[in-house]
Design goal:
Elements: H1 4-32, H2 50-78, H3 82-105, H4 109-134
Helix pairs in contact: 1-2, 1-3, 2-3, 2-4, 3-4
């Protein structure tokens, strides 16, 4: 049975993959255009445009969060307790996607504050899920 939790988990993975594909398409274009050698890409894209640096960081943020949020979703799915996660699962995914998108488009003070707000929402959701899944509250 497809639940909102499994949809959010698949969506989170897809979003991280989409950011990675975008980065690799741009990197390939730079290599094929002779602008950067194939071995000229540090993990943070430090030698590239500010956009590429933000893209690398947005992707890294997704990968850093996946073990935490993904594990909570997998735990709920595996223990048949998606009633705990379903109501906020798509909110988690939307918050992640909005956070990444803001990261890509701006580094202004207001954008950074907005980005943190969406990150904080993810942390709050994760803490809520962990408490509920542990049966603490």
């Amino acid at each position: 049975m497809i639940t909102q939790s499994s949809t959010a988990l698949a969506g989170y993975i897809f979003w991280a993959l989409l950011l990675l594909v975008l980065m690799e398409v741009i990197r390939s274009w730079l290599v094929l255009g002779g602008k950067v050698p194939a071995n000229g890409f540090p993990p943070d894209n430090a030698n590239l445009s500010p956009f590429m640096q933000r893209l690398a960081r947005a992707h890294a943020n997704c990968i850093e969060g996946l073990p935490i949020f993904g594990s909570l979703l997998i735990l709920a799915i595996a223990t048949n307790r998606t009633a705990v996660t379903d109501s906020l699962a798509l909110w988690l995914l939307a918050s992640r996607m909005i956070q990444s998108t803001i990261h890509l488009v701006s580094i202004s003070s207001i954008a950074v504050t907005a980005r943190f707000t969406f990150f904080a929402a993810q942390m709050a959701i994760g803490i809520y899920w962990a408490i509920k899944l542990l049966g603490v509250a």
